[in-house]
Design goal:
The complex is a heterodimer of chains A (171) and B (202). Chain A is of the alpha/beta class and 171 residues long. Helices cover 32% and strands 34% of the residues of chain A. Chain A is built from six helices and six strands; from the N terminus they run βαββαβαααββα. Chain B is globular, with a radius of gyration of 16 Å. Classes of the chains: A alpha/beta (171), B alpha/beta (202). At the A-B interface, helix 2, helix 3 and helix 4 of A face helix 3, helix 4 and helix 5 of B.
Chain lengths: 171, 202
């Protein structure tokens, strides 16, 4: 299985067996956007997913993990006087790569569907974030993420033209 | 003459005079000086606020007006940036900071109202390379900032923020903080990274 990972490469170990071939040129059987989609400008999210889907084999998949926006907002709203680092970094990131958008599960699902992907799995889970605080003190916090898997089927040329015309009309 | 420095307002902040009149009604005969990092706006002072302010500009102003500016800076750098801005003020001068209301945006998301105005409050309009938000502020975060910088907090309230999305006006929310500098601000030992510009993806 040929796999492309964008973002946190370490997440490859969670999603794939050992016998995968990590590649940087398509076609791919699977593209993993590992804590990456939120670094895309929001007006380009659907286009990015659509362009990536073009690099998949027929029946290929895109998996995306993103911080859960509704979880971050709930935590911030509930703890205004003592906001944790995890919900804040779920909105704005903590590395040199700033986050440019965020996703609730319905928003994420809609983005996949608008890109022509069929959502076959959508779930949320918790993971542990590590922070290095002042004085090199390591701290950990729990954070929630969304995981979504979209299936791609190549369209026949006639359908593809219709789809493009529809998108042009919307834009 | 009240000398006011309008920070990051490009060719001049649209509502600066209204805000000064509302929050500092005793200030008369207002003179605005524009400070910006974008040379394209032809500012009076061309300055990146993540860098220390040159001495020739320090202590010269009665008011620093920074409307929708500090949310464009990473949260980790914001304290040092505001400290830089304080060096523009004389002792007894005021800083007026306006930022999008983070708790409002969070509550909208939780209410299922996650529309483009909420996205704009959280991550900016994204219609040019400067219009990206790298941080968000609750009232608590602003008051903690004032305390850390040893400012006297005068007012902190939420007011409507009018956002234009697809040429339609929608009402969001913003925080307005007015604080007074009562003592000389000390340099902070916080390293600030050079301002990153957001690459255009497609």
């Amino acid at each position: 299985m040929r796999v492309l990972i964008l973002g946190d490469i370490e997440q490859g170990k969670i999603f794939f067996e050992d016998d995968v071939e990590y590649a940087n040129q398509g076609p791919f059987d699977c593209i993993l956007l590992a804590t990456h989609l939120q670094t895309v400008q929001r007006q380009h999210v659907v286009q990015v997913l659509s362009k990536l889907a073009d690099e998949l084999v027929d029946g290929g998949r895109i998996i995306a993990t993103v911080p859960a926006l509704e979880w971050a907002c709930k935590e911030i709203a509930a703890n205004l006087d003592n906001m944790g680092l995890a919900p804040y970094t779920a909105l704005y990131g903590m590395s040199d790569v700033p986050y440019l958008c965020g996703f609730t599960m319905p928003w994420l699902r809609m983005s996949f569907e608008e890109a022509g992907l069929t959502v076959i799995e959508a779930r949320s889970d918790f993971y542990t974030l590590k922070f290095l605080l002042e004085g090199d003190i390591e701290a950990t916090e729990r954070a929630q993420q969304h995981i979504i898997i979209g299936l791609w089927h190549k369209k026949d040329p006639a359908q593809a033209i219709d789809w493009m015309a529809e998108n042009d009309k919307d834009s | 003459m009240t000398k006011i420095v309008d920070v990051g307002g490009g060719k001049g902040s649209r509502y600066a005079k209204d805000f000064i009149n509302e929050y500092l009604p005793d200030m008369q005969d207002l003179e605005f000086v524009r400070l910006d990092a974008d040379p394209g706006t032809d500012p009076d002072i061309l300055q990146d606020i993540t860098r220390p302010i040159p001495k020739k500009h320090c202590g010269k102003y009665e008011v620093v007006y920074a409307s929708h500016v500090i949310e464009h800076i990473a949260f980790w750098d914001s304290l040092a940036v505001v400290n830089n801005l304080l060096s523009l003020l004389r002792i007894g001068g005021y800083i007026l900071i306006i930022v999008p209301n983070l708790e409002w945006a969070c509550k909208q998301v939780l209410a299922g109202m996650c529309d483009l105005s909420v996205m704009a409050v959280l991550w900016g309009g994204q219609d040019n390379e400067w219009m990206y938000h790298k941080s968000g502020y609750t009232k608590t975060a602003l008051s903690v900032m004032a305390k850390r910088l040893e400012l006297t907090l005068m007012q902190l309230k939420s007011t409507p923020l009018y956002v234009f999305i697809n040429e339609k006006e929608t009402v969001a929310s913003q925080h307005v903080m007015l604080a007074r500098k009562d003592k000389e601000n000390q340099p902070l030992r916080i390293e600030i990274k050079p301002r990153e510009r957001i690459p255009i993806v497609l």
